[in-house]
Specification:
The protein is built from 6 helices and 17 strands. The protein has 294 residues and is α+β, with helices and mostly antiparallel strands. It has a single domain, classed as Clavaminate synthase-like (Double-stranded beta-helix). The protein has an 8-stranded mixed β-sheet with strand order 1-2-3-14-6-16-5-4, with helices on one face. Strand 4 and strand 5 form a beta hairpin. It binds succinic acid. The site of succinic acid has 11 residues, from strand 6, strand 15 and strand 16.
């Protein structure tokens, strides 16, 4: 299925809500057009309001994706996960079920547990922009949850507890990590030792406080794994309840942009894994954070 041709000019920008807790669709933007400051500001406002924004019916090339994404900040060159880049485009990750060089794709199972992008690095992603090139006839959906709302809906006492914690992120908790090439797994682990980040993030632009805990957290710094586990499980379950989730059903030509400071996401396995699902992701770098732990 190819993206539809749908030429438009960037005119008045509107966002309509897509979900109860998060998600908004932006109308009136064509990624092929140059981005002016007013458009960037309007998209940012919608982004802060909805946390995840969707642009439909785009017909974007890799260069269009990069030009658009650069309007929102410096792009990561994905040096922390060098094996997953699109050839010739270090600022694009290629997340695909299509075999590469006659071998299964190393990114065929990316994103299969709830997470925020690049939380296992010292520069966690501010934003991610994922473009759908091709999708299976059924499924291949992505779910997002609102971590600001998850934080707000905790009791005062629990907020007080998590405010004082640091989450230790461990790349080996990425679902399916050990199904990938062993040499690449070893190098990716070497590049990304366990790192502690505050368990509550304060958004640098909006000031919003959001939970920063995921299924890739091994323990809370200063606590044992056994002490931490029930709290990690509770917080993840609390954050990913249906009332706090938006499920995106992809169409080719969709660009979905999410704020990694206020959301988590998971790529679902709700499709025939032999079918092509081919996505390109640009990652806007966030502020330096955290400390490496032994
Ligand atoms: C990701 O985790 O960045 C990819 C999500 C997806 O492929 O749906």
């Amino acid at each position: 299925m190819a993206a539809r041709e749908h030429p438009r000019r960037n005119a008045a920008i509107e966002a309509r809500p897509l979900g109860y807790a998060l998600g908004g669709e932006i109308l009136g933007v064509d990624m092929r057009d140059p981005l002016d400051a007013d458009t960037v500001a309007a998209i940012r406002r919608a982004w802060h309001a909805h946390h995840v924004i969707v642009l439909r019916d785009q017909n974007a090339s890799p260069d269009d994706i990069l030009r658009f994404a650069r309007g929102f900040g410096d792009l990561d060159d994905h040096a922390q996960t060098p094996f997953y880049r699109k050839d010739g485009y270090p600022e694009l990750l290629e997340i695909t079920t299509k075999p590469k060089d006659g071998k299964p794709s190393e990114t065929r199972n990316v994103g299969r547990n709830w997470h925020s992008d690049y939380a296992y690095t010292p520069r966690p992603a501010a934003a991610s922009m994922l473009y759908c090139v091709e999708k299976p006839p059924i499924g291949g959906d992505t779910m997002f949850c609102n971590m600001a709302r998850a934080y707000e809906t905790l009791s005062d006492t629990m907020r007080g507890i998590v405010d004082g914690l640091h989450s230790v992120y461990d790349i080996s908790l990425v679902a399916g990590f050990y199904e990938r090439d062993p040499a690449e797994v070893a190098e990716t682990k070497r590049l990304n030792p366990p790192i502690a980040h505050p368990a509550v993030k304060v958004h640098p632009e909006s000031g919003t406080r959001a939970l920063y805990v995921s299924e890739r957290v091994a323990y809370f710094h200063g606590m044992t794994a056994a002490e931490s586990r029930p709290l990690i499980d509770f917080l993840c379950e609390h954050a990913t309840g249906p009332e706090n989730v938006y499920r995106h059903v992809w169409r080719p030509g969709d660009l979905v942009c999410w704020d990694n400071r206020t959301t988590m996401h998971v790529a679902l396995t709700d499709f025939d894994q032999n079918q092509p699902r081919h996505m390109l992701r640009a990652t806007v770098v966030g502020e330096p954070s955290g400390f490496v732990v032994d």
